[in-house]
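Feature request disguised as a bug: please show the residue count (351) next to 3-isopropylmalate dehydrogenase in the output. Example input:
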Amino acid sequence: MKLNIALLAGDGIGPEVIDQAVKVSDAIAQKFGHEITWKPALTGAAAIDAVGEPYPDSTHEICKNADAVLFGAIGHPKYDNDPSAPVRPEQGLLKMRKALGLFANVRPTFTFPSLLDKSPLKRERIEGTDLVFLRELTGGIYFGEKGRRDNGDTAFDNCVYTRAEVQRLAKKGFELAMTRSKKLCCVDKANVLETSRLWRETVQAMEKDYPEVEVSYEFVDAVAMRLVQWPNSYDVLITENLFGDILTDEASVISGSMGLMPSASMGAEVSLFEPIHGSYPQATGLNIANPMATVLSAAMMFENFGLMEEGKAMRDAVNKALEAGVVTEDLANGAKAYGTKEVGDWLAANI
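Example output, currently without the count:
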């Protein structure tokens, strides 16, 4: 297969972990007889510094014409610490999601047998956890009207959803549940919010189309609690943008490290694959960032193309590295820590 992949390294540790994912992906391509053309493009603070905006038109052209996008991370302290900055890296991320129609964020959370005791939660609470969040990504409060009034003393952010936006996300949730344990949880705040009531009634109306799926409806605060108490009670969860942003970060630490969790943002034409950990600017250039989440994101990318054996080979290599202790300092726990590049080299060599 010939693959044309847009490569958005971004900021902070983004370029470092992306380099390792490219290295491992190229090893996969060589092993299985594929051809990958990587097309780098600017985004985030790097793009602001270069051309004055975080998601330039030139980057969009590369992304929309690609088979997929492999993304690193965006964010820089000089913008994080300046609330009045007129242009921010995160604006580029929102613009990209909207422009590419990336409406469904897929965030798996699973455990690794060799790391069960590194989780902040007790082994018996997390063993067997294998859940997936589908977060709506282009609607809700992040994209609603926002502003100030009363001379800046009052601020507002509007949360707006249409039934069609809920239906297309829920459809993916039902379809995913059918491939797993046929359990779906709709997360909302329907006792307070009108948008949540729309979510709930829309999903309820879709139940008849998926009679084999057992659907539950839970308030977001209850789910936040149960993710800590009994995470393995969940399988597929669907929710709106803000709730999903918060809950997926909470779920990500169950595995023992945010440096292990991949994600995908799915669109009608092109999909984007990225680690969840952010730009981690303090580690930039130190060769200590964990590249495994980015490598696992690339595995999700291969599987999205139907290349299941290739994705499995990447995940198997990561599991072998964890079992062999070939890990960066976030997982070393006092033992020898390998550098970002060294982990990437080991994974590529073991494909």
